[in-house]
Amino acid sequence: MAEKASENVVYVGQKPSMAYVLGVMTQMSNGQNQIFIKARGRSISKAVDVAEIVRRKFAKDARISNIEIGTEEKALENGQKVNISTISISIGK
Amino acid sequence: MAEKASENVVYVGQKPSMAYVLGVMTQMSNGQNQIFIKARGRSISKAVDVAEIVRRKFAKDARISNIEIGTEEKALENGQKVNISTISISIGK
């Protein structure tokens, strides 16, 4: 993933879930009212874990306001293209 | 998973995605206008794949009307309890 770090987006990847939970909580305490938890492919399950941990354990006044799913085309090294699913979970106060 | 097979629910688990895509399409052709694609834990990513494949390749008039995430408590064999994330994707015409 080569996304630019956006102020209110947390991209979920290979690290343990708690790393991303911390990322969300840091943004919330920096005054972000709306945070997007985004992931692709197999990390989608972890993105849901992150949203649920934030909502249930750390920011009990936070609500999940929207969830979107989609598909991106990804070019493999051999030139082939594959479709990869995406998720964006919007969480805020 | 020991859920009762519900008429308009497709539970996504260990099988290949296309098995569940077929399940959704079968229910649609049986006249179900609203189908819930449900999964837990690591199968959540596959549930998103299934919804996206249905919407993009097979039922192009279908819309994803709602996505809900949640947490269930699961008892392990040793008596410990762990939290497991869930997703329910509602897709229909």
What does this structure look like?
- The structure is a homodimer of 93-residue chains.
- Chain A is α+β, with helices and mostly antiparallel strands and 93 residues long.
- Chain A has a single domain (9-92), classed as Translation Initiation Factor IF3.
- In chain A, 30% of the residues lie in helices and 38% in strands.
- Chain A has two helices and four strands, in the order βαβαββ.
- Chain A has a four-stranded mixed sheet with strand order 1-2-4-3, covered by helices on one side.
- In chain A, strand 3 (63-75) and strand 4 (81-92) form a beta hairpin.
- The relative contact order of chain A is 0.22.
- The model of chain A has no long low-confidence stretch (mean pLDDT 92).
- Chains A and B meet through helix 2, strand 3 and strand 4 of A and helix 2, strand 3 and strand 4 of B.
Name given to the CATH architecture of chain A: 2-Layer Sandwich
- Tell me the structural class of chain A: alpha+beta
Instruction: Give Rg of chain A in angstroms.
Output: 14 Å
- The tally of domains of chain A stands at 1
The SSE string of chain A, one letter per element, is EHEHEE
CATH level-four homologous superfamily name of chain A = Alba-like domain
- Total helices of chain A: the number is 2
Q: How much of the polypeptide of chain A forms β-strand, as a percent range? A: 35-45%
| Poorly predicted runs of 5 or more residues of chain A | none
**Helical fraction of chain A:** 25-40%
Detail the topology: elements first, then pairings.
2 copies of one chain form a homodimer.
Chain A: E1 9-11, H1 17-29, E2 34-40, H2 44-58, E3 63-75, E4 81-92
Parallel strand pairs in A: 1-2
Antiparallel strand pairs in A: 2-4, 3-4
